[in-house]
Specification:
The protein has 552 residues and is an alpha/beta fold. It has three domains: 91 residues, Gyrase A, domain 2 (2-Layer Sandwich); 140 residues, Isoleucyl-tRNA Synthetase, Domain 1 (Orthogonal Bundle); 191 residues, HUPs (Rossmann fold). Helices cover 50% and strands 13% of the residues. It is built from 19 helices and 15 strands. The strands form four sheets. A five-stranded parallel sheet has the order 7-6-5-11-12, with helices on both faces. The chain binds one RNA strand of 77 nucleotides through helix 2, strand 9, strand 10, helix 11 and helix 16.
Length: 552
RNA sequence: GCGCCCAUAGCUCAACUGGAUAGAGUGUUGGACUACGAAUCCAAAGGUUGCAGGUUCGAAUCCUGCUGGGCGCGCCA
């Protein structure tokens, strides 16, 4: 918002220098404009002088001085400083902030969302857990990150689709069928040896029991029976997954089945396309993709010597299909243990004639659970993992989602169940929600005093002159930059940090300043400030998929 | 053996992608409710950013080499 105005001031000054021959015309001007972390360094600062100093063969300070003298800033800034070794600091007028607040109030909080997307189509594929068992907590983190990222991009003007890829054609599904089949035989009183590499969880026994209890007909031959069990188990488990996700507040636009790639002939298209372009070849009775043509990685098998296609083949086909559906940017969210897979898929994307930057892979690091201060083990193999369902039941949706988004996604997350469950000040979720409830409470009181929201539009914002009031306004306006940053960097966790910071300032303000007072004009101005604060908090929580309770 | 990620206050983590004196929360200590919700606030204390070099006006951030941890390296998915 205001950042753009600052950028214009800088650019105009540079253009002026070019015109006067101080800066060569062909020099690219690409300054960074940032919000200084140090208070006293103004509202914005730029490093432009450091960039131009070598060109002018002068010191950064001198360069900054030359530029500042040419800056036409009176409309928005009280002053511009050259500070430190050559930073240029901009001090925006209070009146500008007050005006921005007024504008945002008039247009509504949605005016703060950037329009970086311009309607471009983005496909976010996430969770995509195989339907061979319930979702565990790691899937939950991926679900939260994917869902919130989708919200952010969508709010930032992208046309977003959420997709879940169901891996229903691979060997794991066969293993699932065999697992259920053997458990079923056990129930029938047969002596079976249940192998180590089958699914160990109790839920397999539940599936077998369901088949028996519902008296479901099973095909007679073993092979047919296993195939039936595979389909049955997969569907039941998938239903459970969808239910878990819904309770977590995550909804998908599409569920895309791997088997559909075969049915629609996308697999064959992919193979012939790669072959025609010369990126695939035969060797040792198998059919290979030339990964090495694009990335520092070894060539990979597409069709095994036994004629079976590999998972990689499906995946290339799937991504080809995504591009065919006109998505310009593909976001894949994977567990970080799949990071070694990135080069080959990027290579495949390039073989399909796309830019490798068209595919963004976001890795989700593992979650370790903490209970009673001790780590909770979670091994999928042993069947003793903690499911998303268990976490949801224990701490609730709001805390679960918020906690999953309190860390950068590619960093380990330590999830403290006891903390997430606490309804006290230590719990960051409540810290944010409490601010919202507090503001709502003030508005209820204001209503009792005969002030309704309608009167806010007459508020005189020049009365918001306290330093912390101006700071709160800045915080509100910065919501725009935060969302923009999230959308650019694909980092949803920035919103949680922003909200915690924003409401921290509010709580502090609240303890110092009385909002409802005898001075009606001042009261109205402060109420408008709180109104917008409330809107931003609500909007931010909404993007996170966390509720904003009016009372708690 | 090769490759990727991580290492920041006692603990859990930030730092707007190379910016100024590295910040929060928690924990510890001491304070604030007979006016809008104390699920809150204020203050003190806490650091050689794992180690050693390098790049430059400037490094937690980039490069090289170590130390310690996680994960990959299949005609598995």
């Amino acid at each position: 918002m205001i950042k753009r105005t600052i950028a214009t001031i800088i650019r105009d000054a540079c253009e002026g220098c070019k015109k006067d021959g101080i800066i060569p015309v062909n020099v690219e001007i690409n300054p960074i404009i940032e919000i200084p972390k140090e208070e006293g360094h103004g509202d914005y600062s730029t490093n432009i002088a450091f960039l131009l100093a070598p060109v002018l063969k002068k010191s950064p300070q001198e360069t900054a001085g030359i530029l500042v003298r040419r800056m036409d800033f009176n409309a928005v800034c009280d002053k511009i400083d050259v500070a430190g070794k050559g930073f240029i600091n901009f001090y925006v007028k209070d009146a500008i902030w007050q005006k921005l607040l007024q504008d945002v109030y008039a247009e509504g909080v949605d005016a703060l969302f950037p329009e970086t997307g311009q309607g471009k189509k983005v496909l976010i594929e996430f969770v995509s857990a195989n339907p061979t068992g319930p979702l565990h907590i790691g899937h939950g983190r991926g679900a939260a990150v994917g869902d919130v990222l989708a919200n952010i991009l969508s709010k930032a003007g992208y046309n977003v689709t959420r997709e879940y890829y169901i891996n229903d054609a691979g060997r794991q599904i066969k293993t699932l069928g065999r697992s259920t089949f053997l458990r079923w035989q056990e129930l029938k009183g047969m002596q079976v040896s249940y192998e180590q590499d089958l699914y160990q969880g109790e839920y397999i026994k539940d599936l077998a029991r369901e088949i028996v209890e519902k008296n479901i007909d099973i095909p007679s031959g073993e092979e047919d029976a296993i195939a039936f069990m595979a389909r049955f188990s997969g569907e039941v488990i998938m239903d459970g997954i969808v239910k878990d996700l819904e309770d977590f507040g995550v909804y998908f636009d599409n569920y895309y089945k791997e088997s559909a790639l075969y049915e629609r002939g996308v697999i064959d298209d992919t193979l012939s396309l790669l072959k025609d372009k010369g990126y695939a070849y035969e060797k040792d009775g198998a059919f290979w993709f030339k990964t090495s043509a694009f990335e520092k990685d070894e060539d990979r098998v597409l069709i095994k010597s036994d004629g079976e296609k590999t998972y990689f083949t499906s995946d290339i086909a799937y991504h080809l299909d995504k591009f065919r559906r006109a998505y310009g940017t593909l976001v894949d969210i994977w567990g970080s243990d799949h990071h070694g897979y990135i080069p080959r898929l990027k290579a495949a994307i390039q073989a399909l004639g796309k830019d490798k930057e068209d595919l963004k892979v976001i890795l989700i690091q593992f979650v370790s659970l903490l209970k009673d201060g001790k780590p909770v083990g979670m091994s999928t193999r042993a069947g003793a993992f903690t499911t998303l369902r268990e976490v949801l039941d224990e701490v609730g949706r709001d805390a679960a989602r918020f906690f999953f988004l309190m860390r950068k996604s590619d960093a380990h997350l330590e999830f403290d169940l006891d903390l997430a469950k606490k309804t006290s000040n230590e719990n960051p979720v409540y810290y944010v929600q409490y601010a919202y409830a507090r503001i709502m409470s003030i508005f209820r009181n204001a209503g009792d005093e005969g002030i309704d929201a309608d009167q806010l539009k007459n508020a005189d914002l020049r009365l918001l002159a306290q330093e912390d009031e101006i700071n709160l306004i800045k915080g509100i306006i910065h919501f725009h930059d935060v969302i923009e940053g999230c959308a650019r960097s694909f980092e949803p966790h920035r919103i949680t940090f922003y909200l915690l910071d924003l409401v921290g300032n509010f709580h502090s303000y609240y303890n110092k300043t009385r909002v409802l007072g005898d001075d009606r004009e001042l009261t109205l101005a402060r109420l408008l400030l709180l109104y917008m604060l409330r809107e931003v908090i609500r909007s931010g929580l909404n993007v996170l998929g966390v509720s904003a309770p009016e009372k708690m």
